[in-house]
């Protein structure tokens, strides 16, 4: 059997794990956590192997989504990095299953209802400022791994700019011409709220000057209001499977 972080060899059996525990039984376990951690260390390789099997079961979905992002954004996107980050996010969410019983266990993102306050069309007025999703990604320290923002925070309202919107954004020099690739607009206030949260406020990679907010024309804001209302009535947070903008 390999070390704690390795995988169980083909000949590993529970009896062998029991032998390992028997050898440790000569120690004095005055701290209950020591006993439990020894048991965990013995079982960890087998647990790791089963977890790997679960991820392998869903890997085809992760791979398809990551390749789709690369095809729509550009070759600079690393699909493997996106997959690894998504897998780590799954493990982080799985921790909630074993939270302290005294605490309320939050529901997973896909189980959460639409945040009615965030997705209230009345928030969008003629003075509401927006930012490009690509800039929000950089501002929160996510660098060039595009799409991370939408995977990590699926509750965020995002609006996919249509050709008319892109034309205006390009004319106003808010973005460069990107052809048929996706471009998302997010509400500046939502991004600044994220930046002030515990997850980001102490990050050395925070770059809020990257946001470059702007006020869109009334006709574009009206389209976003209608889109928000449609999503709000849908009762589910929109899945982040769409390819992000460059």
From TrEMBL:
Monomer and homodimer. A minor proportion may form homotrimers. Interacts with ZNF541. Interacts with the terminal deoxynucleotidyltransferase DNTT. Interacts with TRERF1. Identified in a histone deacetylase complex that contains DNTTIP1, HDAC1 and MIDEAS; this complex assembles into a tetramer that contains four copies of each protein chain. Component of a histone deacetylase complex containing DNTTIP1, ZNF541, HDAC1 and HDAC2. Identified in a complex with KCTD19, HDAC1, HDAC2 and ZNF541. One of its GO terms (cellular component) is nucleus. The gene is DNTTIP1. Residues 1-20 are annotated as: Disordered. It comes from the Eukaryota. This is Deoxynucleotidyltransferase terminal-interacting protein 1. Its main location: nucleus. Residues 128-224 form the TdIF1 C-terminal domain. Keywords: DNA-binding, Nucleus. Increases DNTT terminal deoxynucleotidyltransferase activity (in vitro). Also acts as a transcriptional regulator, binding to the consensus sequence 5'-GNTGCATG-3' following an AT-tract. Associates with RAB20 promoter and positively regulates its transcription. Binds DNA and nucleosomes; may recruit HDAC1 complexes to nucleosomes or naked DNA. InterPro entries: DNTTIP1_dimer, TdIF1, TdIF1_C. It is found in: Nucleus. Residues 35-100 form the DNTTIP1 dimerisation domain. GO terms for molecular function: DNA binding; nucleosome binding. Pfam families: DNTTIP1_dimer, TdIF1_2nd.
């Amino acid at each position: 059997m390999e070390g704690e972080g390795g995988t169980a060899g083909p000949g590993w059996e529970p009896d062998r794990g029991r032998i390992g525990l028997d050898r440790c039984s000569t120690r004095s376990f005055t701290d209950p956590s020591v006993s439990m951690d020894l048991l965990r260390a013995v079982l960890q390789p087998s647990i790791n192997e089963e977890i790997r099997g679960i991820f392998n079961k869903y890997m085809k979905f992760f791979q398809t989504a990551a390749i789709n992002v690369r095809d729509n954004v550009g070759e600079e996107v690393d699909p493997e990095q996106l997959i690894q980050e998504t897998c780590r996010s799954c493990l982080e969410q799985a921790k909630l299953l074993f939270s302290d019983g005294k605490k309320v266990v939050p529901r997973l993102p896909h189980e959460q209802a639409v945040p009615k306050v965030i997705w209230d069309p009345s928030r969008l007025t003629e003075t509401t400022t927006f930012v490009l999703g690509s800039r929000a990604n950089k501002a929160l320290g996510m660098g060039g791994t595009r799409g991370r923002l939408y995977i990590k925070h699926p509750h965020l309202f995002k609006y996919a700019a249509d050709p008319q919107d892109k034309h205006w954004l390009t004319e106003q020099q808010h973005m460069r011409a990107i052809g048929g690739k996706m471009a998302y607009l997010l509400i500046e206030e939502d991004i600044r709220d994220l930046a002030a949260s515990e997850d980001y406020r102490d990050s050395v990679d925070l770059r809020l000057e990257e946001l470059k907010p702007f006020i869109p024309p009334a006709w574009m804001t009206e389209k976003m209001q209608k889109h928000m209302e449609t999503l709000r009535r849908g009762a589910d947070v929109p899945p982040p499977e769409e390819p992000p903008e460059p």
